[in-house]
Amino acid sequence: MAKMWRGIIEQYRDYLPVTSATPVVSLCEGNTPLVPARQLSAELGPQYEVFLKYEGLNPTGSFKDRGMTMAVSKAVEDGATAIMCASTGNTSASAAAYAASAGLECIVIIPQGNIALGKMAQALMHGAKVFAVDGNFDDALRIVREITNNYPITLVNSVNPFRLDGQKSGAYEICDALGDAPDFHFIPVGNAGNITAYWRGYVEYHKHGKAARRPRMMGFQAAGAAPIVRKQVVPKPETIATAIRIGNPASWKFAEDARDDSNGMIDMVTDAEIIEAYQFLARREGVFCEPASAASVAGLIKLMKSGFFKHEAPAPGSKVRIVCVLTGHGLKDPDNAIKHSAEVISVPASADAVLEHVALARR
Ligand code: F0G
């Protein structure tokens, strides 16, 4: 039997609203690894296992591809010729790539000055028409809603239900890989589509008997952009994690439902905690994600430090399993990576000059 991975629609067709008539637009997204986080697991202790769902390994470097394959396939099925989105960067990169593959026009609106360089490069390189507005993501989404309400162009933000359908596949993959749902699912929260989608995915898989249990959903917002935690719209959201710099999430209510139905939590982490987790992941686990993605692990570290897990001992003979979703690749944001790393050491072109800076005993 051929074993080629053909993307999340072919893999999970039975769980998705597609028919044999749906023209599948796929870049073979999904099937991302669940990387064991050795250091985090060791710090928690022998009764705990932490895994990183490394979504940065999707075709455009973020989880958005899972939803975009669905949204664009359904748009093509519908006869659309153009798609549009507001974005903090990753949605626009993904929309631009899938539009290119499908031969659709793509228009994106981004907040001026607040998107990571790699994401901008992707949207432009894939041929999208990119508009930067003097405002934030929430302003951009308002504009996109207004235009798509009045003109024949398909909105592909996560308010498009097909986006969330596709993103549920992340939960299916985690259950398939572990043989069950984890105990805890840590995830960054911005526009709140992904936490909604993961929860729906876990609930459905459980209903179909593919998982024996459902995880507690642990969402984390950036402290400067934490409307759900603060229970009010944040008019001027600010955080170094530009991907989740959102003050009025579209799926706000659904995220609260996911939290409440799963006995989970939505909390916040500071930029300093986000950067600490970002560096820890890169330097200690060997996994490079973008700052917003590190919010999930920053949340885990925050709870570890507070003693939260002391009350979460596993059943005898088993372990507490924790999955943290790393939503986007570190290469998306080279500026932050360089800013938060050691400097390059310039030296003359000789071995001695290099050796002056490294402590090595001669062989
Ligand atoms: N992590 C990354 C890397 C993201 O790009 C986003 C959202 C999130 C987390 C949060 O996911 O919005 O479903 O709660 N990025 C959107 C964008 C807003 O435009 O690319 P969410």
Q: How large is the radius of gyration?
A: 21 Å
β-strand percent reads: 5-15%
Distance from first to last alpha carbon = 52 Å
Shape: globular
Query: How many individual β-strands?
Result: 10
Computed structural class: alpha/beta
Q: What are the low-pLDDT stretches, counting only 5+ consecutive residues below 50?
A: none
Task: List ligands, each type once.
Answer: ligand F0G
Strand order of the largest sheet: 1-2-10-7-8-9
Query: How much helicity do the residues have?
Result: 25-40%
**Biggest pleated sheet:** 6 strands, mixed
Which H/E pattern describes the elements? HEHEHEHEHEHEHHEHEHHEHHEHH
Please report the number of helical segments: 15
| Integer average pLDDT | 97
Quick description:
This protein is an alpha/beta fold and 363 residues long. It has 15 helices and ten strands.
Please outline the helices and strands.
Layout: H1 8-11, E1 34-36, H2 38-44, E2 48-54, H3 64-77, E3 82-86, H4 90-102, E4 105-111, H5 117-125, E5 129-133, H6 137-150, E6 154-155, H7 161-167, H8 169-178, E7 184-188, H9 193-207, E8 216-222, H10 227-230, H11 252-261, E9 265-269, H12 271-285, H13 294-305, E10 320-326, H14 334-339, H15 351-355
Parallel strand pairs: 2-10, 3-4, 3-6, 4-5, 7-8, 7-10, 8-9
Antiparallel strand pairs: 1-2
Helix pairs in contact: 3-4, 3-7, 4-5, 7-9, 8-9, 9-11, 12-13
Ligand F0G binds next to helix 4 and helix 9.
